Amino acid sequence: MDKAYLERAAQDLSQRASSLILNNQTVRLRSAKQDGSKVVVITEPVSGITKVSSLKLLDEAGNLITERTANVDVLSDQSLEFRFEFEVKGAKSDALQS
């Protein structure tokens, strides 16, 4: 795939990422930045969580971008911040074989 197209897809992803659902609680995003075909999404810090069991990164329409499940205990006085890193990659096509 063309590098410019992959960067455009990464830009689209960075602009659409809008919130994180952590154990059914909405967490705001601090930033979603694109660098070429890479995207880094970072949440605002959240506290008062004692266990992380579910993470869902959503777009502006509430559609699922990615989901993770976990079973991680957290100290009650800890503040958590989540970071997602994506790289948009193309796939090779066998459509043009001679």
How would you describe what is shown here?
11% of the residues are buried. The protein is 14% helix and 52% strand. A six-stranded antiparallel sheet has the order 6-5-1-2-3-8. It has a two-stranded antiparallel ribbon with strand order 4-7. The two termini are 19 Å apart. It has one domain. It is elongated, with a radius of gyration of 16 Å. With 98 residues, the chain is mostly beta strands.
* Largest sheet, strands/sense/barrel: 6 strands, antiparallel
Shape: elongated
Task: Tell me the count of domains.
Answer: 1
- Intertermini distance: 19 Å
Tally the helices: 1
Low-confidence region ranges: none
H/E topology pattern: HEEEEEEEE
Classification by helices and strands: mainly beta
Number of strands: 8
Question: Radius of gyration, rounded?
Answer: 16 Å
Strand residues, percent: over 45%
Strand line-up in the sheet with most strands: 6-5-1-2-3-8
What's the pLDDT, averaged over the residues? 92
Helix content: 10-25%
